[in-house]
Write a structure and sequence with these properties.
Layout (H helix, E strand, L loop, with lengths): L6 H27 L4 H22 L38 H30 L5 H64 L1
Length: 197
């Protein structure tokens, strides 16, 4: 294990950051109050901070692990957690439950199997022959355009049928009126014919 990953380096890094920040703040206070050695404290503190930021920039961030998701209680100070192989600690103490871990692993296995099936389907799709697809799409476009034309013609014929129905309704109304007039004329003629005798 390298020195950079060791606990000693992490402690030293935190110590230097804290001391450098404290010296910078005190130097700023000295400068604001115009006390002696203010410039020297600012130079020293800012130099330490610049060195720390340079080192942190070169090393890069450490990977974050969220072990408390697998080991509930891990982020609590003083929690009694047994290793995975040791089994449950007790009914009242927080720890790992073998059945829970087994269920979680079983769920992960099911997810992996589902992913495997999905990948198999994708592979089958990749191996499919799509060479005639362009021609089929052209034929479908032709079919849809003809279908649209037929629908437009059908809409026109529906409009014409409605117009024809309106004309028939008007004709029927006119015939009823004529029948009334004709009936009135017949009764008037029969009255005229009856009055001659």
């Amino acid at each position: 294990m390298s020195f950079v990953k060791s606990k000693g380096f992490k402690y030293l890094k935190n110590l230097l950051i804290g001391v450098g920040a404290a010296v910078v703040l005190m130097g700023a206070l000295f400068k604001l109050e115009s006390w002696p050695y203010a410039s020297e404290m600012l130079i020293l503190g800012l130099s330490v901070e610049a060195l720390i930021f340079l080192v942190l920039g070169i090393l890069g961030p450490e990977k974050d692990y969220y072990w408390e998701k697998l080991y509930p209680g891990l982020d609590e100070y003083g929690a009694k957690i047994q290793p995975l192989a040791a089994g449950p600690v007790g009914a009242s103490a927080p720890g790992l439950n073998g059945e829970v871990v087994e269920q979680q692993l079983g769920g992960m296995l099911n997810e992996l199997q589902g992913m495997s099936k999905s990948l198999g389907s994708l592979k089958a799709l990749q191996e499919a022959d799509f060479s005639g697809t362009g021609q089929q799409i052209k034929q479908m476009n032709s079919f849809y355009s003809k279908l649209n034309e037929a629908m437009a013609d059908l809409a026109d014929s529906v409009d014409e049928t409605k117009h024809y129905k309106d004309q028939l309704t008007a004709l029927n109304t006119n015939l009823n009126s004529l029948n009334g007039v004709y009936g009135g004329m017949l009764s008037a003629m029969s009255n005229i014919g009856g009055s001659k005798s």
